[in-house]
From TrEMBL:
InterPro entries to which the protein is assigned, alphabetical: Cyt_P450, Cyt_P450_CS, Cyt_P450_E_grp-I, Cyt_P450_sf, Cytochrome_P450_fung
CDD domains hit by this protein: CYP64-like
Listed cofactors: heme
Tagged with keyword Metal-binding: yes
UniProt keyword list: Heme, Iron, Metal-binding, Monooxygenase, Oxidoreductase
Stated name of the protein: Cytochrome P450
Family assignment from sequence similarity: Belongs to the cytochrome P450 family.
PANTHER family found in the cross-reference section: P450, PUTATIVE (EUROFUNG)-RELATED, P450, PUTATIVE (EUROFUNG)-RELATED-RELATED
GO molecular function (one): iron ion binding
Length: 410
């Protein structure tokens, strides 16, 4: 059913074949580590807006979504998500919900009995549902693409349209490739940041250590800047521990073996489905002492594998996402005390949604309180409306890409 809904245009669900490789190559030039490093001025600006918004509201779920969405929409289409209530965000939500409903095992008889697909439309009501879901998402991606093409500056849409790999592709195929990236960016970074806040309110002890590091490296007169990020090992460890404590894709994305394989003497035959139980592995008491505790110390100057999936299908957006998380989390911890609002939060399986590919914390409350009047002042003054100029930033990104030897296509 998922393939009916996406007409095989969702890269996550494509088999690894030549067509997949073509789409992967198309994306690679805008998602590479070198390209992603050029995008930091955008994350720098959007994280300032995030802090200012959090001075006015504790609705961090909405603000994280706006932050993450605005970064990918600016890159993909050249326009910002200003309020988080834009129709594009609403429709993207709907589309992601649709995908969740069609990827649920057992929900659609046609998934277990594929011959049902030969039934004529009147006897196969799921075909109409699939067509409606496909039309909704195609309209979103096409409208965004057309909007991006008339913009003055470089953006991913222009880049894709002028790429050699795109020569044989239809507009719909290109629009879906861009839409896949935009959707991936909306739903993921924001949820990792929510898990981080959940850790802050349920295991607050680590916050003091993080703020001590920030005070030593940054002081209280300015926000952490891009050059500070490499000097903040405890912040990096918090991000690693957030991924370990609760992975947002708890059972990963199933992969299939393309040839017979042996693991520790066991034969894994060609065509087997491999499901990486990220959450189970990361809560194994033999691997992690007190696995339910949130202890960033586990990761000081260390990294774990699997945060971004694995193998040839590893998340290509990980360099962009890592920078968004580093800016967002370092700056929030610098500016705010993040504390519980209401009664203690019980963090067990029931605290998370389990009806989609991404498992998010169910809504909970937290208070974002400036750490001092000085911190409040710095946040209030950290950006003014005239500095929120995405066109200027995209020009800067384009220039930076050229200067590091990349070939952005406009
Ligand atoms: C914190 C944020 C993110 C997390 C935790 C995350 C995680 C993942 C995971 C677990 C996968 C599956 C990998 C596998 O099959 O083994 C994946 C795939 C993917 N992600 Fe991300 N992701 C994030 C952000 C992003 C962003 C910002 C983008 C794009 C701008 C992106 C684009 C993609 C794409 C295109 C795939 C499909 C890759 C394929 O099937 O070959 N992701 N991501």
């Amino acid at each position: 059913m998922a393939n009916e809904v996406t007409q095989r245009r969702n890269i996550l669900m494509r088999p690894f074949d030549n067509e997949f490789l073509l789409h992967q190559r198309l994306e690679a030039s805008v998602l590479s580590p070198r390209a992603s490093a050029c995008y930091t001025p955008l994350q720098e600006m959007e994280s300032r807006v995030l802090l200012q918004n959090l001075l006015r509201t504790n609705d961090f779920i909405h603000e994280f979504e706006r932050y993450a969405a605005s970064i990918v929409y600016s890159l993909a289409y050249g326009f910002r998500i200003v309020t988080g209530d834009e129709w594009q965000v609403q429709v993207a939500h709907q589309a992601l919900q649709n995908i969740s409903s069609v990827t649920q095992v057992g929900q659609w008889a046609v998934d277990s009995l594929p011959f049902l697909n030969y039934l004529p439309k009147p006897l196969a009501p799921w075909k109409k549902t699939a067509e409606e879901f496909y039309a909704l998402e195609t309209n979103l991606h096409m409208t965004n693409m057309n909007e991006a093409l008339v913009r003055e500056d470089w953006n991913w849409t222009k880049d894709f349209k002028n790429a050699k790999e795109a020569e044989g592709l239809s507009d719909t195929a290109i629009a879906w490739d861009l839409g896949n990236l935009a959707n991936a960016g909306v739903e993921t970074t924001n949820v990792v940041m929510q898990v981080f806040v959940m850790a802050c309110v349920s295991h607050p002890n680590f916050i003091a250590t993080a703020q001590k590091e920030l005070d030593e490296v940054v002081g209280s007169d300015r926000l952490p800047e891009v050059d500070d990020l490499d000097n903040l090992p405890y912040i990096a460890a918090i991000i690693e521990e957030t991924f370990r404590w609760r992975h947002i894709v708890p059972v990963g994305i199933p992969h299939a073996t393309t040839e017979d394989n042996y693991y520790k003497g066991y034969l894994i035959p060609r065509g087997s489905t491999i499901i990486p139980l990220f959450n189970t592995m990361r809560r194994d008491g033999k691997l992690f002492h007190a696995p339910l505790d949130f202890r960033p110390e586990r990761w000081l100057n260390k990294k774990q594998s699997g945060n971004w999936g694995y193998g040839r299908r590893i998340c290509p957006g990980r360099f962009i996402a890592t920078n968004s998380l580093r800016f967002g989390i370092a700056r929030m911890l610098w500016a705010f005390n993040i504390r519980l609002d209401g009664k203690p939060l019980l963090v067990d399986e029931s605290a998370f949604t389990m009806d989609g590919i991404v498992s998010a914390p169910k809504p909970f409350k937290a208070i974002f309180e400036p750490r001092s009047e000085q911190h409040r002042r710095v946040v209030e003054q950290c950006i003014c409306p005239a500095d929120i100029d995405v066109s200027k930033i995209l020009k800067q990104i384009h220039k930076q890409q050229v200067s590091v030897g990349l070939n952005p296509r406009v």
